[in-house]
């Protein structure tokens, strides 16, 4: 059955399909960290719906929330009308927002995916400022629709973006700092470059409607923004009247060890873009923003599917569970222990160039020491090795994702409910896979 399904799908589906290429499994059941395939094999899922399953697959509180809507006879499709379900979601969302933001916040429900909320944020800030330009970062990923693609600097390159009005600024990448110095100094230089560009009248920067930033770049290779650098971006934008958009699609809801990724630095953005875990594993996306920006005309942002009642119920249950169980703290603690163990792995294997992350958003950058590079570390990224490790992981019942500017970074996005024993199982399978794939 498994092979027949895979054969039919690959004959009929677009060549642009992605996960289905590197993960040839046919999931039929799932619970928590575990997916069971049609062939009866079980997998530890550290992809978690691209980071959207904060509580893992089919968590009881999520299932119960969905069931209670289904059993209540409430309408499933209500456009964007007010309902008790929406009220409960909005209340829980506002309760979780950073202090200093929540009391001034407005929410706009968007189309179902993260990329839709990015579009809404870009549109909102253009409407509010009357400007068009956008400040975005190297290696960024914001989605696959036109505006989000323009803002992206990573995988978006697969199809050329229009790139209209986008100024690309350097995002700190400690391990591969283009200035040749890592740590605070590299981030300071990146910030200074940004500042000089913004203030250079001949710099070619179109007057910006916004700056958009990920508190931790995910698809770009799991790069946490240094706190001081992010605070500097906040200062630079605030001083120039440029709204700051935090794309928390992947970093939100406890993932990085704080409820929101911006909270590590204490930065209060003007706009937060939320999706993935906010819908508790079902499609939901919102922008939350300062009320002063709420000047776009009535009907300026519409769409048929902005009222998914099941997603709102699942999302409210997820937000509540993460808050009440303090899963952000759990993610911070367990993530730190996993990073320590992974650093041990890096000491034993020359091909593990860098290990980094925040909370349960973890990246392992694989490199090719044999290539020699330019004779000094870091060695070039090794996307072939990363793909081989991913395949060896799958053979051992572990699902990991790849990312990074060259595709050389293994990414782990396990559920926030991950236990110590599960983490050990994940790390030991990963270590075996690296051992097997290393040339
Ligand atoms: N922004 C970020 C930071 C993301 O990680 C993603 C998805 N990986 C998106 C936006 C786009 O979300 P979606 O795939 O739901 O459109």
UniProtKB/TrEMBL annotation:
Its cofactor is pyridoxal 5'-phosphate. The keyword Flavoprotein does not apply. The keyword Cytoplasm does not apply. It is an enzyme of class 2 (transferase). Pfam families: Aminotran_3. InterPro entries: Aminotrans_3 (IPR005814), Aminotrans_3_PPA_site (IPR049704), Dat (IPR004637), PyrdxlP-dep_Trfase (IPR015424), PyrdxlP-dep_Trfase_major (IPR015421), PyrdxlP-dep_Trfase_small (IPR015422). Belongs to the class-III pyridoxal-phosphate-dependent aminotransferase family. This is Diaminobutyrate--2-oxoglutarate transaminase. The lineage of its organism: Bacteria, Bacillati, Actinomycetota, Actinomycetes, Kitasatosporales.
